[in-house]
Write a structure and sequence with these properties.
alpha+beta, 4-stranded mixed β-sheet, 3-stranded antiparallel β-sheet, 51% helix
């Protein structure tokens, strides 16, 4: 007798009470330590990160260890909870190495599967927030194209958050190495990024000593898994950007008056904001679906991530553009934070792969030839 195939589980797109409690804690912290004037002032420095903010977020709230099992010193949560943190970080564009360290690097180490040894020890440090790590690949690397390796004495450009990382995870032909950023053989040269809240750097390795964590095959699978998680949860950051832009635009157009009436009462502006709201609702569904697929280990996770990136990256850019335009003259100034959201949205639109590359991925995953 043939047993009928079980239908795939329906993804849970709703937020649990625990997730909402986590959101409240993170939002309160960011409102206190990463409000708009603080972030704008921080972007005027070479390293905009606030160590006290990171200590509170990573260690105090425990956000850095959400993906790490409890036996390795983490919270034993899932990608759904990490997605909530990234939504709030997107809403505040706070400079924090959460996506690169607590998601991509952490997920890469988790994919190695060891419960002891150097990778487990590093995971404990990352979970506590005592150290940060970044994967030494370009921030624009798509999971499906994660074959980029660091040659001996080679340089990797566009490595996000490398300027504040304690450890670099370096994929080579021999395998994945953990290299101390302070090693004399490591040179981290800051670049000039579009998004001043997420610094980029060129990393050059010339005879640096590292600890081998995994062989080449295991390393390749781990790097792809880390980048897949990063791309999937980046959609939640993009969702947070779009939500802030819409909320701020609605607030401003209610208060700004022309011809003795709020500009938000003009029908043309109502239509633009209503259209943006519809796009954000769809983006929320796509981002939550990607986070849930990653959390449950669904075989459809690559497709869910690709769909989320195709949609959310464009929505974030559109929302930020509308925010700048509908604020009028004040939206064009450096004093208003709208430009930070536009730059973050534009930078995120090519992070972990562009929307065009993910459209190609969707076509391949569902076996539809791309035009």
């Amino acid at each position: 007798m043939t047993v009928p195939a079980q239908p795939p589980a329906t993804p849970d797109l709703l937020y649990s009470q625990d997730e909402e409690d986590l959101r409240s804690a993170v939002r309160a912290l960011l409102a206190d330590r990463a409000d708009a004037p603080t972030v704008i002032a921080a972007t005027e420095s070479d390293t905009p990160y606030d160590p006290e903010l990171w200590a509170s977020l990573a260690g105090g709230i425990g956000a850095a260890g959400l993906l790490v099992p409890e036996k390795l010193g983490g919270q034993g949560a899932s990608h759904r909870e990490a997605a909530v943190v990234l939504e709030e970080l997107g809403r505040s564009v706070a400079p924090a190495p959460y996506l690169t360290s607590s998601v991509v690097a952490t997920e890469t180490l988790l994919a190695l599967g060891g419960q002891d040894g150097p990778s487990a020890a590093l995971l404990r440090d990352l979970a506590s927030g005592a150290r940060t790590a970044v994967l030494a690949v370009s921030f624009a690397t798509q999971p499906a194209g994660a074959a980029a390796l660091v040659p001996p004495g080679g340089t990797v450009r566009g490595v996000a958050d490398a300027v504040v990382a304690d450890v670099l995870l370096v994929p080579t032909l021999e395998g994945l190495y953990a290299v101390e950023a302070a090693d004399p053989g490591v040179a981290v040269r800051p670049l000039v990024p579009l998004d001043l809240t997420r610094p980029l750097a060129a990393v050059t390795l010339t005879g640096a000593a590292g600890t081998l964590l995994a062989d080449a095959d295991t390393s390749a699978r781990a790097v792809r898994r880390g980048l897949l998680a990063g791309a999937g949860l980046l959609a939640s950051e993009q969702l947070g950007i779009a939500e802030w832009c819409l909320a701020e635009t609605v607030r401003y157009t209610r208060e700004r008056h022309q011809f003795n009436r709020p500009v938000g009462s003009f029908q043309s502006l109502k239509h633009r904001m209503a259209q943006l709201w519809l796009e954000i609702v769809s983006a929320r569904a796509a981002a939550r679906n990607a986070a849930d697929a990653l959390a449950t280990g669904s075989t459809d996770a690559p497709l869910a991530v690709a769909v989320a990136q195709v949609h959310c990256s464009g929505v974030a850019v559109h929302a930020a553009e509308e925010c700048v335009q509908l604020h009028g003259g004040i939206g064009m100034t450096w004093e208003h934070p709208a430009h930070l959201y536009l730059k973050r949205a534009k930078a995120d639109s090519i992070a972990c792969g562009s929307a065009g590359s993910y459209r190609q991925s969707v076509a391949e995953l569902v076996e539809l030839p791309a035009p």
